[in-house]
Amino acid sequence: MKRVVLSLALLTPLAAASPHLAAVDADAFAPSLAEKALSLDIAGAEPSGQQTFAVRDSGQLLGVLVPGKGLLRADMNACFIGWSRDGKTVASLTPTIGFAQFDGEACEDVTSVGVISRPDDSELKIAMIYTATTLVETSLVAVVLAYDPQTRSLVVDKALTKRVNDAELDSVPKIRRFYAAPGSFASVDGTLKP
Predict the structure, then answer these.
(1) Is 51 left (phi over 0), alpha (psi -120 to 50) or beta?
(2) Residues of the chain falling short of pLDDT 70
C-alpha cells in the first residue's frame, strides 16, 4: 500500500505540471466569436466542431482555444482561432486558413488540435490541423501556435508553421516528433532553437 501511495505522490506533480488541453463546450463562446469575427470581415462565424479546448498548465487556466469558421468577404470559407483569457468570452481572434500565408485556400474544417511542446519547454506550442482546399486540391494543412505569457495570447508561429508544412507533416503526433528533434524547430521570432 505504501508503494502505491508513494508512486501516486511522485507521479501526480508531473502530470499536473505539463501543459494540456481539456475539451469544453463551444456553444457558450458562439455569440462573442461571431461578434469578433466581423472585425475580420467574416460573416456567419461559428465554432468549429468538437475542437474547443481549455488550455491549462499546472492546473492554471491559460485560456480557451475556440477554432472558428465562417464566410470571408461572402465568397470563401475561412478559419480563425478565438481565444478566451477568462474562459467566458472570446477576447481576440487569430486568422489562419484564408489569410496571410494561406490566402487563396478555403477552410473546410479543423481535424485535430494538440500540444506539441514538451512539459519542460519554456514555450507552449499547439498544433492545429485543418482540411483546406484550393482550386486544384484538398489537403491537410498545419498551423502552429505559440502562447505568449506576457500578453496571455496566442500567436501563429509563422516560421515553424512554414517548416512543418514544407515537411508535409499532416498530424499532431508527426509535428510533435518533428518539434522534439534537436535543431528542427524555430521560435516565434524565426530564430532556430537548439
Answers:
(1) alpha
(2) 1-17, 183-194
